Amino acid sequence: MRRIVFTSFLLAAFFSNAQQSLTLEDCYALANKNYPIAKQIELLQQKSDYEVNALQTGKLPKIDLVAQGSYQNQVTTIPNPILKPLNKDQYRANFDVNQLIYNGGLIDANTKLKEAQTKTQQQQVEVSLYQIKTRINQLYFSILLLQERKEILVSKQDQLVSKIKEVKSGIQYGAILPASEKVLEAENLKIKQQLSEIQFDKKRLFENLSSLTYTYVPETTTLQKPILIADETSQNNRPELKYFELQDQQIEASKIVISKNNLPKINAFGIAGYGNPGLNMVDNSYQPILMVGLRANWNVFDWNKSKAEKDALTVSADIVATEKETFLLNNSLQLQEMGNEIKKSEEIIKTDTEIIGLREYVEKSANAQLKNGVITTSEYLVEFTNLYEAKTNQKLHEIQLALAKANYQVVKGN
After folding, report:
1. Using CA atoms, how far apart are residues 73 and 75, in angstroms rounded to an integer?
2. Helix, strand, coil percent content, the chain, rounded in steps of 5
3. CA 234, 414, 345 angle in degrees (round to 5)?
4. Could you tell me if 380 and 369 are in contact, meaning their C-beta atoms sit under 8 angstroms apart?
5. Residue 80: C-alpha distances to residues 14, 73, 276, 282 (Å)
6. What's the angle, vertex CA 411, arms to CA 408 and CA 414, rounded to 5?
7. Measured distance CA(405)–CA(227) in Å, rounded
8. pTM given for the model
9. Is 293 helix (H, G, I), strand (E, B) or coil?
10. For a Cys staple, 369 with which of 35, 174, 374, 405, CB 3.0–4.6 Å?
11. What span, in angstroms and rounded, lies between the C-alpha atoms of 24 and 11?
12. HSE-CB of 290 using CA atoms within 13 angstroms
């Protein structure tokens, strides 16, 4: 938590002193680095390293210290007057040493399985992080739209203020009615209201963007409009596809472990100690104990347990295949829908340019008529507002097109 706060402090200082702009890729990178779940990638690797180290200790000698004391009510007796009967109390302390010699590579197979499991889990985190991109897109382009609207409103306000000055001059010379100025002043106040709304909306959206990227992004930051291309021929690089691939690799690694479980296992062992009696049971005294040897075991028949486990893994692989197929189908439908949205927006923007051209012509004509007293200020204001509504619509459609392209890239995994 202290690290996040410190990082946020440094980034805040950076934004305030050096950089007043932010790109869409910057937001992606900040989310991938700072979002809480991103820490799991490193933590999963640390966990895997510990578990692999624990597995590898299976290749090292195992040493046990065994101490035993016992009493029994009967002992083996030999009908020989020369031999003393065995003690009913017996004592023994020794070291048992076992060294793995051969187990068919089971430890290495389990190590590879653990590594495959870790990669799958890490990729699952990548999938979760990737899904944040769509939310970032929505916030980013919403702020961009507010930036564009603000620019248009400021331009509209500047022109309106200039028009108010003209009207005031006309009123002084009696060419225009005094009420005409009030109409324009009311429209100017309306623009101020809209600018105030934009400011509060931007503040809210920047706060949401800061929360999503886990980085303080001041509301004075200018978001750069990205240049995006919706390439339909590019390869699908969604992280889910790699996740399905890693799941298949994990299943194959599990099958190898099952196969290794049925191979022979050979261990060397040694016993060194001291006891009464020793290895010579008829010697009723404390004697040193020393024994070395090899031990082999092989489960030659497991009642088809391994086969059943492999069959279950095969079914799991089939399940992964159906999940992948379903994902690709849904992904294809999303791309098709977004492709249509992009084409629609492109066509609308072409018409927007024509509409603005016509609205500018009408506004200039109305302006001339206003100066000549042919129309009222209210009538001129209608055409003036229509012009800027057309400009606003064009910017809205441009942002919608950019958002559609950004979402297309996210869905395609580019």
Report:
1. 7
2. 65, 10, 20
3. 80
4. yes
5. 97, 20, 20, 11
6. 80
7. 9
8. 0.85
9. strand
10. 374
11. 16
12. 1
* Closest C-alpha to 20, from 28, 12, 32: 12
Helical spans, DSSP H, in 214-304: 239-261
Tokens of 93: 């302390």
Burial string for 285-312 (b: 16+ CB within 10 Å, else e) reads eeeebeeeeeeeeeeeeeeeeeeebbee
**Own/partner pairs for 296-305, CB < 8 Å, 24+ apart?**
296/264, 296/265, 296/266, 296/267, 297/264, 297/265, 298/263, 298/264, 298/265, 299/261, 299/262, 302/262
Q: What residues are paired with 90 via a beta bridge?
A: 70
pLDDT digits (tens, 9 = 90+) for 194-233: 999 999 999 999 999 999 999 999 999 999 999 888 777 7
Q: Please say whether the beta carbons of 210 and 137 come within 8 A.
A: no
pLDDT tens column, 244-281: 999 999 999 999 999 999 899 999 999 999 998 888 87
What pLDDT, in 10s, does the model give residues 134-173? 999 999 999 999 999 999 999 999 999 988 888 787 766 6
**Burial profile 394-414: b = 16 or more Cβ within 10 angstroms, e = fewer:** bbbbbbbbbbbbbbbbbbbbe
First-to-last C-alpha distance (Å) of the chain: 32
DSSP state of 298: -
What element of type H or E holds 141? Answer: helix 132-172
